[in-house]
Amino acid sequence: MRAPTSSLHPRTGALRSAVIVNPVKVPDRDVLHRTIVDALTAAGWPEPMWLETTVGDPGSGQARQAVRDGAELVFACGGDGTVMSCVTVLAGTDIALAVLPAGISNLLAASLGLTGDVAAGIEVVLQGGRRRIDVGCVGEQSFAVMAGMGFDVQMLVATNDDTASKPVGWLAWFAGAVRHLRDRPMRIRLILDDRLSFNRRPCAVIVGNAGRLRGGMRLLDDAPPEDGLLDVTVLSPRTLGHWLSPGWAVLRRKEVVPCMETFTASRVEIRSNRVQPRQLDGDPIESGKQLLVTVRPQALLLCVPCPTTDPGVATAGGDPSAIQHRVHRVDKRM
Q1: Cα–Cα distance list, 278 to 91, 272, 281, 282, 308 (Å)
Q2: What is the 3-state secondary structure (H, E, C) of 267-285?
Q3: pLDDT band at residue 312, thresholds of 50, 70 and 90?
Q4: Strand locations in the chain (E)
Q5: Which terminal Cβ of the chain has fewer Cβ within 10 Å, N or C?
Q6: Phi, psi dihedral angles at 43 (to 5 degrees)
Q7: pTM attached to this predicted model
Q8: Residue 188 and residue 73: Cα distance in Å, rounded?
Q9: Rounded distance, CA 104 to CA 160, Å?
């Protein structure tokens, strides 16, 4: 396993913050607002700015406004699209990003070991754990966890709900795969760092920075999030039996996974012979024949649980159950 090139950076003291929230994804905005404000006030922090996303703007404009207004920390409260919009704007700045999934699942929250518990997300911020991680780039958009082309888009969409965030979420992920067993494989040319090029017929190619999917299932187990490299997974199962073998191997964290190849590079280009579905951090983007991914090393300052013991974002803050235990003292202040 590659050693991480950076470590946890604790930050103490009150910070000026902004909450970017997707109102469609939050069942009760008043409760959410009161929970966040009460917790931050009890910790001696000023009241945060409150910025709501719209149908036409899932978070980019709101994140830019937070930057202009002097926010030192941004809470992204919503789904994958909201989080990805905040990642895109905050990458390259010293403004920290905190993820509050607020009852729904998203890939970055899953990588941090968080589900829909707002109090746990706030506790992560108040602990002061900060970590600089790489971000991947596709055009003008940035992602923190993974990009994908092909079959994985349907699987992620099929598990993009609360069911996938539960302990049996990996079963929902597998069920999403079974629905598309008869889909034709892609014909692609994979180009790594402009030096290694080869053809494959996979069902999906995933380019990742951290490898925990919804439900705690790890796909890119050896993916330190701040090493300046992207991890590439090429999945080529053809039958139900083929899917069972790599699925079981991934769940058991075997070093060799059938029907799966892995590579590393700082620039990844996927060229397909036909238009394919594509996704960034679990959020579908426009389909296309090409996916070009580059990396910005350690561009994003991310709030993570304390302490850090593992090079992956997924457990960068240690045991998520410990976060849930510590959060009781936050609940008591509300």
Answers
A1: 22, 12, 10, 9, 32
A2: EEEEEEEEEEEEEECCEEE
A3: low
A4: 17-21, 49-52, 73-77, 96-100, 130-138, 141-143, 146-150, 188-192, 196-200, 204-208, 211-212, 218-220, 230-235, 260-265, 267-280, 283-303
A5: N
A6: -90, 0
A7: 0.80
A8: 41
A9: 9
How confident is the model over 25-42, as pLDDT tens digits? 888 899 999 999 999 999
Q: Provide the CA 286 distance to its chain's centre, in angstroms.
A: 19
Helix, strand or coil, per DSSP, at residue 206: strand
- Is there a contact between 156 and 282 (Cβ–Cβ < 8 Å)? yes
Strand partners, 289: none
Please report, for residues 40, 167, 174, 210, 243, the alpha-carbon distance to residue 249 in angstroms, rounded to integers and kept in the order given: 43, 18, 13, 18, 10
Q: pLDDT tens for residues 191-226?
A: 999 889 999 999 889 998 865 554 445 555 555 789
SS3 169: helix
CA 240 to chain centre: 28
Only one residue has tokens 């703007």, namely: 57
Is the Cα torsion angle 201, 207, 212, 215 positive or negative in sign?
Answer: negative
Buried b (16+ CB within 10 A) or exposed e, 14-27: ebbbbbbbbeebbe
